[in-house]
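REQUEST
  id: r-88c1
  op: predict_structure
  target: Hydrolase
  payload:
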Amino acid sequence: MARLHLFDLDGTLLHGSTAPVEISRQLGLEAEAVALDQAIGAGLIGPPEYAAEVYRLWAELTEAHVAVAFECAPWLTRIREVWAEIRKDGDYCAVVSLSPSFFVERLIDWGAHAAYGSRFPAVPFTEPMDPAGVLSAAAKVRIADLLCEQFGVGRDDCVAYGDSLSDKDLFGAVPISVAVNADSHLSGISTHSYMGRDLWEAYELVRHAR
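RESPONSE
  id: r-88c1
  status: 200
  body:
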């Protein structure tokens, strides 16, 4: 049976950072984005409030800013190699993130079968933000179920990789999980734990697990 590998983005594929911080850095607004990350990480605001605030911060955002943010972000090493190996084995890989879909979907070009993020208006913004398009921890599980149906696998065939509170629901829904540079929210609920900057090393923990 094929497996589906589900990857978080912020703090997982990105080491010590998030897509909104990397995007905001291009606008000189890194400190504001870090403060929002701390607020959502502490549960002081929810995903809709967070999305509304970063939408406001990004009034001057252009596609050029997004491209540079993506290119210069602190990615883990060997992401593309891991996804190529997953594909070679006949398995599937997807990214499911609360970050903006216009950033997350760029990972399709790196070899992900699918990439889901919160829906934002097209860049540069000329339309209002729709809160209904903002993802949550629970939405990650719903998307995982949709992907299972799409690829013909079940939850029991899934492996989740994540780092924080937004991954907790998904970790509880699948049998195998890897906490990658994770905070205390995933302590005791992950199958494996990895600290480092090489995705291949994290993948090796579950590569042969069935």
